[in-house]
Amino acid sequence: MPAYKTLQGTSLGWWVHSASGTQENGNLPRIALATNGIASGDSYYVGAGILGTFPYEFFVHPNAKGVQSSCPTLRAVVPADGLYHARAYGRDLSQYDLNGDGDGIRLGISVGGRLVPDLVVVSRDSKNRASEHYESVANGDRLWLKAGDTLEFVVDPYDVYNGDSTGLTACYAKEGDADANRRVVNVHFTESGNGKLSATGQRPREGWADWNKWNALRPFGVSSATCRNCVEADGTTPRNVTVSLTRDSGATIAKGTGLAGTLFLESFVASSGTDDTYTFTVGNLKKNEPYTLYLYSVKNFSTDDLGNATFTVGGATKGLEGAWILGDGQKVLTRFDVTSDANGTITGTFAAADANGGAFNGLTLVGALPAYVPTGTMVIVR
Fold first, then answer.
1. Residue 123 burial by Cβ neighbours in a 10 Å radius (0-12, 13-18, 19+)
2. At a CB cut-off of 8 Å and minimum separation 6, what does 288 contact?
3. What is the model's pTM?
4. Which of 33, 87, 164, 318 has the most C-beta neighbours closer than 10 Å?
5. Which residues pair with 87 in a beta bridge?
6. First-to-last CA distance in the chain?
7. DSSP letter assigned to residue 197
8. Which of helix, strand or coil describes residue 341?
9. Residue 269's beta-bridge partner residues?
10. pLDDT digit string (tens) for 79-130?
11. Which residues lie closer than 8 Å to 332 by C-beta, 6 or more apart?
């Protein structure tokens, strides 16, 4: 059974939470906090070969990969509705690789135990030394959370848990209330669902947890397709937003097969290479108004390149830069902060990053939207 206990080392007192209390310092995984100062050396957690901890820094150590209790986790419950920013800072405290097989840890932030806004590798070990850092920060911003929702700061053992002593600090802040004018529209490139909506219930990168409805743009079998009069992510509020997708070569829009059983990722619009471009347009927006646009790209779990997409919007070109949908934190989306043009339109392009092919699964638009005008409405000005 999980156990809490206090210990007295050579220099420091410790508060410890571990998998059990059967050993003097508890089993793995373990979270400990020095209760009386800065640790520089101690008989329990910061002895030979281990760096000292900072004041108010947790000492954590994961268990082996794949064990039910592998990952020590700090959990916070937010007290009020709002937009939040979460941050976790990790340090690799081990000064050496145990048997030369150390690979550091993965430090992640999750929302509600499912979605991952950021994940970083923290390592000073030989396997990752060329590409990673012994200290790193995971950030998750623009998180729409209701009172009682959870944020989790997770230390994952990666592949090897030997020598995974880690210093962990975490915090979150409410950045403001959700503006009533900040609306969310999702569009899914899919064959699923009936009528206007896709069958997926995937939560988008911004929006409340129950704003998980997606307009269905069914583009396969044609060279150009449009979704008109999209509804908001609540599934009921109508808007006049349109989203169009065109394969620039004039050929039929190509379909790729993704993750079976995962509705949002079962199929995708496919680009074969850097020259196989698509143009997408989001229209009927407010003129010259700022918007946030999220573009999703996932092929499957088995490929290292995942979505392998390149997007260009407003003169800026980006690859995939953010995590969200997949639990282990792979980069699956790109975010653009853009301004609509004088016609109330945002235009961009998609192509594969290289000859391995790329995926485009859908998009999320966030911002103020014009009032809905029903089809067939007549406005007379005298």
1. buried
2. 339, 340, 341, 342
3. 0.90
4. 164
5. 139, 171
6. 78
7. B
8. coil
9. 255, 360
10. 999 999 999 999 988 765 555 557 789 999 999 888 999 999 888 776 666 5
11. 296, 297, 298, 306, 307, 320, 322, 323, 324, 325, 326
